[in-house]
Specification:
356 residues; mainly alpha; globular; transmembrane; 13 helices; membrane
Length: 356
C-alpha cells in the first residue's frame, strides 16, 4: 500500500526554464480530467477488489492480515524494481530515487510503520465487516481526529466554523449507524475498526512529517521502508491469529486466478499512492480533497447499484451529512489558509522595505 505525496521525486518536473511555456487551456483541462478520472478509477476499483478478497463468499478466504501483507510485499517489489530500472535507464528518462535497505533508517521510522500497519489493517477490517456503500461513513471520523490530534499533540486550535463542520460529520456518522441498525446490517466490529482506521490515518499524517527527514524527504523511500517493516511485523501477527493454518486449508491456494487477483490488489495499492500525488500535482491539495469527497459519493452510489441494495431516505441523509461536512471542512480550511497567506504577504513586504 503506497503512500501518496506531492513531494514525490517521480512526480516532480523542472519548471520555470527559459523555454518553458504554460500549456494551452484545453490541453491542461484534458490533463486534469484524465488524472482525476484515473484517480477515481484506481481508488474505486481498489475498494471493490479488496472487498472481494476480504469478504467474498465465493472465495471464502478469511485471512485479512495475509491480504494486507501480500499487498505490502507487492509495493516493496515495485519500489525496488523501479529503483533498479531507474539506475539502468539514461539520466532523465526515469526519475526514481535509489533505494537500498538500511537497518538504521528502518528502525528510525518504526513508530510510523506501526501506525501504518494499524491504518491499512483497520481499513481492510472495516471493509471486511461493512458494505462498500457504508464504508465511507464507517471511517468518516478522520477529519474529527485531525482536529483533536492537532490540538492535543500540536497545540493547534481550530476555528468555530471548522468545528461546526466536524459536528455535521459526527451527526452523519451516528445517523448512519442508526440506519444500518434499522436495516439489520449494522456490524459493531466494522464500526470499531472504522474508528480505529480513522485514528490511524490521522496519526499517520502527523508521524509522516516527523520521519520524512530520515529518508531525505522522499515519499517513495518512505513507502519502501514502511511496507518493508510492515511485511516483517505482519508475520508474527499472522502466526498469532492462525492465518497460516487457514491458508494451509484454503482450497484455492494453487489457483492462478486467485494469485492474479491478489497481485492486482497489490498493484492497485501501489498505484493509488502514485495517482494521489499526480492529482495533487496537476490540481492542488484542496482540489484533491474535494475530488476525494466527490469520489466517495460516486463510490457509494455505485456500491448500492452494484449490490442491488435499497436504502432509506435517512440512510442517504447520513451519507450526505458526512460528505457535505467533509467538503465544508475542506472549503473552510482552504479559505483560512488563503487568508493567512494574504496576511503574511504584506508583513513580508514591510520587512523588505525596511531592509530587515
Amino acid at each position: 500500500m503506497a503512500l501518496g505525496g506531492s513531494s514525490d521525486p517521480l512526480l516532480q518536473q523542472e519548471e520555470g526554464g527559459s523555454g518553458s511555456r504554460e500549456p494551452p487551456f484545453l490541453l491542461k483541462a484534458l490533463q486534469i480530467a484524465l488524472v482525476v478520472s484515473l484517480y477515481w478509477f484506481i481508488s474505486i476499483t481498489m475498494v471493490f477488489l479488496n472487498k472481494y478478497l476480504l469478504d467474498s463468499p465465493s472465495l471464502g478466504l478469511d485471512t485479512p492480515l495475509f491480504v494486507t501483507f501480500y499487498q505490502c510485499a507487492v509495493t516493496v517489489l515495485f519500489c525496488k524494481g523501479l529503483s533498479l530500472l531507474a539506475s539502468c535507464c539514461p539520466p532523465g528518462y526515469l526519475d526514481f530515487p535509489s533505494i537500498r535497505m538500511d537497518l538504521k533508517v528502518s528502525r528510525s521510522i518504526l513508530p510510523l510503520s506501526i501506525v501504518f500497519i494499524g491504518m491499512i489493517t483497520f481499513n481492510n477490517l472495516c471493509l471486511k465487516y461493512v458494505g462498500v456503500a457504508f464504508y465511507n461513513v464507517g471511517r468518516s471520523l478522520t477529519t474529527v481526529f485531525n482536529v483533536l490530534l492537532s490540538y492535543f499533540l500540536l497545540k493547534q486550535t481550530t476555528s468555530i466554523y471548522a468545528l461546526l463542520t466536524c459536528g455535521v460529520i459526527i451527526g452523519g456518522f451516528w445517523l448512519g449507524i442508526d440506519q444500518e441498525g434499522a436495516e439489520g446490517t449494522l456490524s459493531w466490529a466494522g464500526i470499531l475498526f472504522g474508528i480505529l482506521a480513522s485514528l490511524c490515518v490521522s496519526l499517520n499524517a502527523i508521524y509522516t512529517k516527523k520521519v520524512l527527514p530520515a529518508v531525505d524527504g522522499s515519499i517513495w523511500r518512505l513507502t519502501f521502508y514502511n511496507n518493508m517493516n510492515a511485511c516483517v511485523l505482519f508475520l508474527p501477527l499472522m502466526v498469532l491469529f492462525g492465518e497460516f493454518h487457514t491458508l494451509y486449508h484454503f482450497d484455492k491456494l494453487g489457483n492462478p486466478g486467485f494469485w492474479g487477483m491478489m497481485t492486482l490488489g497489490g498493484v492497485f495499492g501501489f498505484a493509488i499512492g502514485y495517482v494521489t500525488g499526480l492529482q495533487i500535482k496537476f490540481t492542488s491539495p484542496l482540489t484533491h480533497n474535494v475530488s476525494g469527497t466527490a469520489k466517495a459519493c460516486a463510490q457509494t452510489v455505485l456500491a448500492v447499484c452494484y449490490y442491488e441494495e435499497t436504502k432509506s431516505f435517512l440512510w442517504w441523509t447520513s451519507n450526505m451529512m458526512v460528505l457535505g461536512g467533509s467538503f465544508a471542512y475542506t472549503w473552510v480550511k482552504g479559505l483560512e489558509m488563503k487568508k493567512a497567506q494574504e496576511e503574511s504577504t504584506p508583513k513580508a513586504n514591510e520587512k523588505n522595505e525596511t531592509g530587515i
